């Protein structure tokens, strides 16, 4: 159910952002809201507490965020509280952020290698990803996994490109297990 809520509310916020050409502004405001809540865990507890009424929570949001973020973002947070969806805020914001990046043709990739890559290698990987996708820009996170032995594993959304030696060895093992030995 949380994924449905993230999509419904995230799509609504995204449509408003595109319609009013405020995608970047909303992304900045989301960061501001998240930072404020991270620095004040008691606020998060209060806003998600079932024993505190919706009106009180909405007033709290008004006092905390009015003037710090747009009226639209403040109103959006109040709607989340009113509908009992504030605890799903992270998923909603993550969905919205992903939609904006897709809209702006910004790809998000995770590149896993068995060793730390040089700046030159990272540049080549980014160029190759830009050349082989429709993205205009890439946000790449690099990670090391020594069990790969060699090669790379690249994840972009739900797509995976696995050129690691580890996966090739596993494929070979499965092929060899399928061979029946007849005497």
Automatic annotation (TrEMBL):
It is a peripheral membrane protein. The keyword Membrane applies. Keywords: ATP synthesis, Cell membrane, CF(1), Hydrogen ion transport, Ion transport, Membrane, Transport. It holds the Pfam family OSCP. Transmembrane segments: none annotated. It is found in: Cell membrane; Membrane. It comes from the Bacteria. F(1)F(0) ATP synthase produces ATP from ADP in the presence of a proton or sodium gradient. F-type ATPases consist of two structural domains, F(1) containing the extramembraneous catalytic core and F(0) containing the membrane proton channel, linked together by a central stalk and a peripheral stalk. During catalysis, ATP synthesis in the catalytic domain of F(1) is coupled via a rotary mechanism of the central stalk subunits to proton translocation. Belongs to the ATPase delta chain family. This is ATP synthase subunit delta. The gene is atpH.
